[in-house]
Amino acid sequence: MQGTMTAKFSEEMLKRIEEILKRYATKRAAVLPVLYLAQKEFGCINDTALAAVSRALKISRADVYGLATFYSMFHEEPLGRNVIFLCDNLACTLLGAESLRDHLEKKLDIRMGETTADGRFTLKNAECLGACGQAPVMLVNDDFYEGLTEARIDEVLEKYK
Amino acid sequence: MSTIKITFDDKMYETEPGLTVIQAADRLGVFIPRFCYLEKLSPLGGCRMCLVTLKGVPKLQTACTTPAKDGMEIITRSEEIHKARKAMLEFQLAQHPLDCFYCDKATECDLQDLTYLFADIEHRYDFPPHKRGTVYENRLIERNLERCVHCERCIRVCGEIQGAHAVNATKRGRVTEMREVPGGGECQYCGHCIDVCPVGANLDRLFTYGGRPFQMEMGDSICPYCGCGCTVSLNMRDEKLVRVRPGVDTGVNKGSLCARGRFGWGFVHDPARLTRPLIRKEGKFVEAGWDETLLYVATRLEKIIKEKGPGVVGGIGSVRSTDEANYLFQRFLRTVIGSNHIDSSARLNYAAALAGWLGTKEDAREATFENVREAHRVLVIGADPLETNPILGLAIKAMQNRGGTLWITDPRVTLTTRLSNRHFPISAGAEVPLILALARAGLKDPSLSEFRDTDLAARTGLSSEDLAELAAFLEEDAAKTVILAGRGVTQAPFGATAISLLLRLAATKGASYLFTLDKNNERGSCEMGVLPDRLPGLAPLSEKARFEKAWGGRIPETPGYSAYEMLQAAREGKLSALYIMGENPLVDFPDTKFVEEALGSLDFLVVQDLFRTRTASMADVVLPAASFAEKSGSFTNLEGRVQRFPSLIPTEEGVRADARILVELSRKMGKGFALKNIASLRAEIDSLVPMNGTRRKLEVMGPPLSLPGAEMHWGPGEDPDYPYVLLLTSSLYRNGSMSNRAVGLKKAQQKACVLLNEGDAAVLKTGEGDKVMLISKYGEIQVGVKLCHEIPGGTLQMPEGFSDANPKSLLPHELDQVSRTPMARFVRVKIRKI
User: Fold this and answer.
1) Which residue among B108, B659, B737, B765 is buried most deeply as judged by most CB within 10 Å?
2) Where are the domains of chain A?
3) Which CATH code fits A11-70?
4) Is B183 on the interface with A (CB under 8 A)?
5) What local confidence, expressed as pLDDT, does residue B774 receive?
């Protein structure tokens, strides 16, 4: 495949990978944290990211790919600058997650799974975020928001440019 | 050995310990259904079809993951078990497209068979089957995602046996898909996933709609490609080959095949196959009848012999043809023509190894595939078995899977160096000084005292610590150590001497050895006497009396020319006629320009081949020969195993097997061989070269080999005009004439590229996909660039077997003074951007 022999991480990332590898008995075991770094560096888990992880850990690209496609927080396509994960499991749905989804879709003018034209937001559904007591909930990047209402969402989104 | 007692369905059995329940059941003939379990793979316990009851255990257990223990009572048939297995099948069928009518797996499908067995399966799920379709990302293997039963046999066989890890379960969950990475590039096209698939999810794209089993004839043969000699099952429909599969766990390959074996058969029915003899008349080829052509050949040869004597006629036998044809070829040259100028392209490899073996007094143990699988240590010197002999490569992987260690010394970056536990990147052409250093450490031979360890270390490019570790590697656990050597050694100056030292080392330490052989009958052609100085059974010419008696003719006393000496003699006008059987020197021999000039200087050139090769295009007469599938005989594999195979496809009108052509030509020349059929030919060979089990009894010796001088230099040296060193590599997808005509292998890889370091590419201002000219002192070629971070700066790598690129034209043909083998592993080049 074109370019797969030359794809690699930046020097800084390679140093961080070295650190990660110290925590594991085998290189293969470090694949998840290294995939996170790859997503940071390459924006998503594309061909280049797969090749770089494969090269750094000496495992096949197909093995990395199998893993990356299982976890919903690894993405094959580039995402917006900010990613909203709205929970759509039972407790959240009972407490109005469906109407919140409609609100978000309307407000951002995108459908679930899409990215706004300006690249500011990607909207994704999440399986249970593990906070049913505070439903409905959402995650924006690494920040967690609970007890959501339409007004609260409008307020929160202002923080993310 | 102790046994254990276990009970299946109230019947007591005795069996060996250490098995799982399903293994014990299989050995005892107790039926347990399964999708995911396969003896050669690690157990998965995924399909839940092998559920059984263990007395005293409340829930059903998977027979494939439960160890069989002494006293265990197992129920394989009950209402509960039947219900559970049926439920699993119901799940499978709810997702399955039920398109058996046009599925290539139909009638050979485990899902069909088990559904038939359970018959009364309900269909309670009405959710629509998930539409996943079929992916054609792999050019040779179709992946039908809807038929898949998620047994993961393909994933495990690809990882555990082939070591490619090219297939994996993606999007795990209800919609799991067995996929390759987008864009592919990791598949080695062994096709093992096709064989192990219990349903029609992995299919052979060369075969698509090729026929139902009852419409096909199937027969076992021996693969014509490399020295492994794998057993292949040829599937024919209407007398045409439609598919090749491995024999069912038989032969040296035990159910595995490589890309060449499985997908490389396309040459057999290539429309370019020759079907009529051709005679050159006034510069143009004219089709002619066999009788006319053979009479013409006989007349021309007789005229040349009459005018100039038999010493101006030579023959190049075939490393692709049978033992029997090669035997007849040398008999024809020796007794009908009266010349010892006989050689083959085995000169490029095995002949040098043979010279080393003949020159060794000590009796080193030759390894088998089984020895390699069971070894603890394998040391590879100057070979790339994963590309040249892929099934031997699998034996090495099996050795590693059992905890064994692979060390390799190679200046190149290859599949085998990537697989190795440790790679010693020696300098280009440093195999011989490396072996000298190992011999000095291990043999305590005073004749080696003139070499200095520091000099040798400097020449290998390794540190003295590395060399000491390599020497120590051979000291321990020698009975379970195998040394593998290949063309890196045999194509080096004093390669034969180095082989001899390696064999002495192996014998002294108790290790065993094996040579990697690129071509399927290199060994057989040599053992049949297609050598200028050896008769069948490798008998020296001094023993010629017994052969003269058997053959009823005189054999010349003095050894003849080797391959390149014949070519040199042709250039000097000392050789007038050459008979080439199944070889293509213009493509397969180094220094194309030299070969072309030599062949052009001949008065008379006969080429016997399947195709009008570049060499055949220069001939005066071209004789259309039969392929391996259309003739019977034996091939001798790299272990020395003589393996017979039958003719499975009738030859086309106008095509004849090599042996038959030689017998008829001998008659036309008035000295006809008294041979009625292949059986009488075999009887004659067996009477002259006795067998020892499956191998030939070879109790012969040759002259001891001289050592190089201590000042000897190896490697490409320095030359500012040609700043890069091009190292030639082997390719799984091209290793000669047949592979270059095989549509399947062309799909696997279309073109050769030259691998270039990123730094060098930046200096040259060239990038991936660009075209460059590689120019050596001997020739120039045009080739595409591929970047590779593993290759050191100043070094290039390129596979040698692609005939359109023909990198062999860049090579010199300097011969080793002992083995007369050309040095053909590397050459200095310069690069020009186009």
Assistant:
1) B659
2) 11-70, 82-157
3) 1.10.10
4) yes
5) 97
Separation of alpha carbons B223 and B635, rounded Å: 9
Identify the band that residue A5 occupies on the pLDDT scale cut at 50, 70 and 90: low
Which of B77, B93, B125 is the endpoint of a domain?
Answer: B77
Nearest of B273, B341, B249 to residue B625 by alpha carbon: B273
Burial of A44 (0-12, 13-18, 19+ CB in 10 A): middle
Instruction: Answer left, alpha or beta for residue B211, where phi above 0 means left and psi between -120 and 50 means alpha.
Output: left
CA–CA gap between residue A89 and residue A73 (Å, rounded) = 16
| B683 plus B745 within the same structural domain | no
Omega of the bond leading into B646 within 30 degrees of 0 (cis): no
The answer on B615 and B550 residing in a single domain is yes
Cβ pair A69:B165 closer than 8 A: no
Domain that holds residue B46: 4-77
Which residue reads 């100085």 in tokens?
B533
B476 and B595 in one domain?
Answer: no
Which DSSP state fits B168?
E
Residue A7 confidence (pLDDT): 80
Dig out the tokens for B367 from the structure: 């390894």
Nearest CB to A47: which of B170, B183, B186? B183
The pLDDT assigned to A1 comes to 45
B751 touches A at CB < 8 Å:
no
| Mean pLDDT of the A89-109 span | 95
B58 touches chain A (CB under 8 A): no
**Number of neighbours of residue B461 by Cβ within 10 angstroms:** 17
**Displacement of CA B189 from its chain's centroid (Å):** 14
3-state secondary structure at position B513: strand
ipTM for this model: 0.85
Q: How far apart are CA A144 and CA B515, in angstroms?
A: 64
Contacts of B681 (CB under 8 A, 6+ apart): B324, B327, B328, B659, B675
- Which of A6, A62, A64 is facing B180, going by the closest CB pair? A62
Q: Is B297 part of a structural domain of the chain?
A: no
Nearest CA-CA partner of A39 in A18, A4, A13, A2: A13
The answer to whether the CB atoms of B186 and A70 lie below 8 A apart is no
Structural domain A82-157, CATH architecture: 3-Layer(aba) Sandwich (3.40)
Whether B786 sits inside 8 A of A60 (CB atoms) is: no
Q: Does B600 touch chain A (CB under 8 A)?
A: no
DSSP single-letter state for residue B734: B
Mean pLDDT for back-to-back runs of 10 residues, chain B (834 residues): 91 96 97 96 95 96 97 96 94 90 95 92 78 90 94 96 95 89 91 97 96 95 97 96 90 94 96 96 96 97 97 97 97 97 97 96 95 98 97 97 97 95 96 96 92 92 95 94 97 95 96 96 98 97 96 94 97 97 94 96 98 97 97 96 96 94 95 86 95 94 90 89 96 91 93 93 92 96 93 94 91 92 94 92
For B109, the 3-state DSSP assignment is coil
**Which of B696, B714, B745 is the last residue in one of the domains?**
B696
Asked if A66 lies within 8 A of B185 by C-beta distance, the reply is no
- The answer to whether the CB atoms of B170 and A66 lie below 8 A apart is yes
Contact list in B for residue A3 (CB cut-off 8 A) is 768
Asked if A2's CB is within 8 angstroms of B165's CB, the reply is: no
Alpha helix (H) residue ranges in B575-713: 585-588, 592-600, 614-617, 658-668, 678-688
Judge contact between B489 and B431, C-beta under 8 A: yes
Q: Which of B181, B186, B755, B790 to mutate to test the interface with A (most CBs of A within 10 A)?
A: B181
Q: How far is CA B25 from CA B44, B68, B198, B327, in A?
A: 17, 10, 19, 49
Q: Phi and psi (nearest 5°) for B262? A: -85, -45
Question: Taking CB atoms and an 8 Å cutoff, what residues of chain A touch B415?
Answer: none
Q: d(Cα B157, Cα B680) in Å, to the nearest integer?
A: 44
Tell me, what DSSP letter sits at residue A117? T
